[in-house]
Amino acid sequence: MAKHHAWRQCDEDGCDIQCTPMNFVDVDSKRYCLWCWVKKNNPSHPELDQIEEKVRAEVEVWRCQKHTRDENGLPDGPKSVRSQGNRVHNP
């Protein structure tokens, strides 16, 4: 399976937020983070600051998970019958 390296950034001018899973909207071939989308469509939203903090915090959590996971190891796979010996004694 191919590695997934990154999501795209928000297409809004001046926004540097990396879009993470469940924190973006795709409209007309453009990607907007939730904060920019709410700010664009409802600038008087009472929780606009909390949305920005949540989206920025999710980016940091996602980066930590992405860069600390060890994805380069290969699975052991099925073991050879010869290396396990005679299989008569296995339950």
H-E order = EEHHH
Q: Report Rg.
A: 23 Å
Shape: elongated
Give the number of DSSP strands: 2
Tally of individual helices: 3
What portion of the residues fall into strands of 2 or more residues? Answer: 5-15%
Q: Detail the poorly predicted runs.
A: none
Secondary-structure-derived class: mainly alpha
Strand arrangement in the largest pleated sheet: 1-2
Largest sheet: number of strands, sense, barrel closure: 2 strands, antiparallel
**What percent of residues adopt helix (DSSP H or I)?**
25-40%
What is the distance, rounded to the nearest whole angstrom, between the alpha carbons of the first and last residues?
A: 34 Å
Nearest-integer average pLDDT:
75
What this model shows, in words?
This protein has 91 residues and is mainly α. It has helices at 34-41, 48-68, 81-84; strands at residues 24-27, 30-33. 36% of the residues lie in helices and 9% in strands. It has a domain at 7-66. The protein has a two-stranded antiparallel sheet. The protein is elongated, with a radius of gyration of 23 Å. It is built from three helices and two strands; from the N terminus they run ββααα. Helix 1 (34-41) runs antiparallel to helix 2 (48-68).
